[in-house]
Design brief:
- By secondary structure, the chain is α/β, with parallel strands linked by helices.
- It has 3 domains: 242 residues, Aminohydrolase, N-terminal nucleophile (Ntn) domain (Glutamine Phosphoribosylpyrophosphate, subunit 1, domain 1), CATH 3.60.20; 200 residues, 3-Layer(aba) Sandwich (Rossmann fold); 143 residues, Rossmann fold (3-Layer(aba) Sandwich).
- An 8-stranded antiparallel β-sheet has the order 3-2-4-1-10-9-11-15, with helices on one face.
- 55% of the residues are buried.
- Bound molecules: 5-amino-5-deoxy-1-O-phosphono-D-mannitol.
- The site of 5-amino-5-deoxy-1-O-phosphono-D-mannitol has 15 residues, from helix 9 and helix 17.
Length: 604
């Protein structure tokens, strides 16, 4: 949450910062700001409420510089206002600071060290910049020493970029839990929360570890570890085309990302399966999983929902008991674990703070873990014992789509690999490569039906303040994801429900015209879900049925191609994504950046 950027040694600093912030807008978009310094005694601070487009409008032609920092905010402390927007600055105008994260003890610090300091904002960040200034002035410390002294007092999560008007070509950088990278460019250097922000400047990035403090000038990057020792580190190359982060001719990233799903399925099959369909997964990882007596899948939001499907895949194909946990719950309430647990972290971004908190506990306990993520070198990828990449390409819309289907497809490949070495006949007979090929073709057929799905969205969802998605088993798991998609981007109060459970209370909410959308993809429960749909219809519901071909009957609203039942979520979720998309679009909402949300949730 919150995106930060910095640059030093480039006369186009303003452009680099603003374009970088534009790429990071998915991380937060309630206010934004930049501070730039031209090294010749001129500096500028521009802040605004709202989006980066509004920041651009406020930047007048005279604003220029060669070193600067920028921020796009997702409010944690203090309302959305210009005063609370970053960069924050010390009362003597010497220090400027941007911050991603939350300082847990800022009130205590304020009371203990800064009781006589007037504050301009309600943020935790301003406390830090005033504290740095206090140490610099009162203890006669230079910027780095004052920064280090302040860092020593902080509890919480942070990625900081600090500038000192007395050393205007230098960026002082530190992080704890929140992501931050240094980009090494040709004759200048940049800093960013996500490599995506700076791909137009460089593809070579240096990781920063928690506890390190980095000093960045136009031609040097000096990393110092927590003990004060210099660290030598080589940059890694990010093999991503800057154009991949553009939305091209699409009106919104979400639609582009929905459309990309067939190719993501093919890419995963090519990456992780041989031509004959044999899984190509690191032997050590498979052995570590084989040694486990239980799998624990951990995730948040959509990733948690992908874990619910993964449970079925691991249990059926690999015959290993599997539990799925919401990360923010597991972080603070651990159930009784098995003797030999193995943890699987599902996270598109690889940065979700709730999931990371669980991983820290898992590492402390010495348990093996795997992160399945879309982002190379992300925090959860670096800190887990093993990583598998989703290869889905950047996912920028806040509503996760292709990451969900990629996570399920990769879980299927992994479950097949594990099942085979465990001697499970069902896994040996499961031709995952062929199935993913069928899934890709099926997804294409569904995304080609956009007009039909838009009409259904208009008929069923546009005018109702609430909606239900129902199903049983795997279909219930998909109904949870379908409801999340709808509520987060269209603000319809949607609930995913086990269809058999409705009559135990929730059916009381069904009124004339309430949309109830049923998924029917599993032979064993098809008849039961149809009966449950009938029960809601008898009470006035406006029912829609999404069924797979082999189970479809006349009157079903959408008929999905048949693939193996275990993989049907890969198809049934696609119309749900599009129903949410068109409901949001036709309500005139910002599909990619829904209210109150951010893409990468880096606070707990
Ligand atoms: O990056 P992650 O997969 O760890 O993110 C987890 C959730 O924040 C994310 O899936 C969220 O629920 C999406 N906005 C849902 O569309």
């Amino acid at each position: 949450m919150c995106g930060i950027v910095g640059v030093t040694g480039n006369d186009n600093a303003v452009k680099i910062l603003v374009e970088g912030l534009q790429k990071l807008e998915y991380r937060g978009y309630d206010s934004a700001g930049i501070y730039v310094n031209d090294q010749k005694g001129n500096d500028y601070l521009v802040k605004t409420k709202g989006r980066i487009s509004q920041l651009r409008e406020k930047i007048t032609p005279d604003v220029h510089g060669s070193t600067g920092i920028g921020h796009t905010r997702w409010a944690t402390h203090g309302v959305v206002s210009v005063d609370n927007a970053h960069p924050h600055f010390s009362n003597d105008d010497r220090f400027y600071l941007v911050h991603n994260g939350v300082i847990d003890n800022f009130q205590e610090i304020k009371a203990q060290y800064l009781s006589d300091v007037p504050f301009k904002s309600q943020t935790d960040t301003e406390v830090v910049v005033q504290l740095i200034d206090k140490f610099a002035v009162e203890d006669h410390l230079d910027a780095k020493a004052a920064f280090l002294k302040a860092l020593g007092l902080l509890e919480g999560s942070y990625a900081f970029l600090l500038m000192d008007r007395e050393q205007p070509d230098t960026l002082f950088v530190a992080k704890n839990k929140s992501p931050l990278l240094i980009g090494v460019a040709d004759g200048f250097n940049v800093v960013c929360s996500d490599a995506m922000a700076m791909l137009r400047e460089t593809h070579d990035f240096l990781e920063i570890m928690d506890g390190e403090v980095v000093t960045v000038t136009p031609d040097t990057v000096h990393i110092q570890d927590a003990a004060g020792k210099t660290v030598e580190r080589k940059p890694y190359h990010v093999d991503m085309n800057a154009d991949e982060t553009d939305k091209g001719t699409y009106p919104f990233y979400m639609l582009k990302e929905v459309d990309e799903q067939p190719n993501v399925m093919r890419k995963l099959a090519q990456t992780y399966l041989s031509e004959h369909g044999e899984p190509q997964i690191d032997d050590k990882l498979i052995k570590a999983m084989q040694a486990a007596d239980r799998l624990y899948i951990v995730g948040a939001g959509t990733s948690y929902h992908a874990g619910l499907i993964g449970k079925r895949l691991f249990e059926r194909l690999a015959h290993i008991p599997t539990e799925v946990h919401v990360s923010s719950e597991l972080a603070y309430e651990q159930p009784m674990l098995s003797d030999k647990p193995f943890f699987i972290f599902l996270t598109q971004s690889g940065e979700t703070a709730d999931s990371r908190e669980v991983l820290v506990n898992v590492n402390d306990a010495g348990y093996p873990s795997l992160t399945i993520t879309n982002v190379q070198n992300s925090t959860l990828s670096r800190e887990a014992s093993y990583t598998l990449l989703l290869h889905a390409g950047p996912e920028i819309a806040v509503a996760s789509t292709k990451a969900y289907t990629a996570q399920i497809a990769l879980e299927a490949i992994l479950a097949k690999a594990l099942g085979e070495v465990n001697g499970q006949i069902i896994a040996q007979n499961f031709n995952v490569r062929q199935q993913l090929g069928l899934v890709a073709t099926g997804m294409q057929a569904i995304v080609d039906e956009k007009a039909t799905i838009e009409a259904l969205a208009n008929d069923y969802l546009m005018k109702s303040p609430k909606a239900f998605y129902i199903g049983r088993g795997i279909d219930h798991a998909v109904s949870l994801e379908a409801a999340l998609k709808l509520k987060e981007i269209s603000y319809v109060q949607a609930e995913g429900f086990a269809s058999g459970e409705l009559k135990h209370g929730t059916i009381a909410l069904i009124e004339d015209g309430t949309p109830v959308i049923g998924f029917i993809t599993q032979a064993k429960t098809a008849g039961l879900t149809r009966s449950n749909l009938q029960e809601t219809m008898a009470r006035g519901a406006n029912t829609m049925t999404i069924a797979r071909q082999g189970l479809a009957i006349e009157g079903d609203n959408l008929v999905l191609p048949d693939v193996d039942e275990m993989l049907m979520p890969l198809l049934s979720v696609v119309p749900a994504q599009l129903l949410a998309y068109y409901t949001s679009l036709n309500k005139g909402l910002d599909v990619d950046k829904p209210r109150n949300l951010a893409k990468s949730v880096t606070v707990e």
